Amino acid sequence: MNKVNCWEFRNCGRQPGGENVEDLGLCAAATTSIMEGIHGGIKGGRACWIIVGTQCGLNGNETGDKHKRACVSCDFFNLVKVQEGMELQQSEGLLNLVR
After folding, report:
1. Strand 87-91, strand 94-98: pairing
2. Which of 4, 13, 64, 74 is the most buried (most CB within 10 A)?
């Protein structure tokens, strides 16, 4: 199974050294070291839905229901959910994947 990070899946170019960093800035998922290794990812690359400022298609400041709707309908989120054999659990405003 090939476990890719969100920036690889979405081809956004916002990871360190990425082609869109100058225009769009670094994505928090690509720089958040506290999430290193979660679901086999680099930094927050396979747990982007719980990192503020990573919502693809949104302006990065959304929280609550708007954030949740964007993430649960995201192809990458659903890929990780299937690859990890996990289920979605929503609690305290966060989206968590649990076994």
Report:
1. antiparallel
2. 74
Residue 45: φ, ψ to 5°? -65, -15
What tokens were used for 22? 């100058």
Q: How many domains does the chain have?
A: 1
- Is pLDDT at 45 greater than 90 in this prediction? yes
Question: Is 1 inside any structural domain?
Answer: no
Q: Which domain holds residue 40?
A: 6-98
Q: Would you call 26 exposed, middle or buried from its count of C-beta atoms within 10 A (0-12, 13-18, 19+)?
A: middle
Helix 75-83 crosses helix 64-72 at what angle (to 10 degrees)? 70
Kindly state the average pLDDT of the residues 54-71.
65
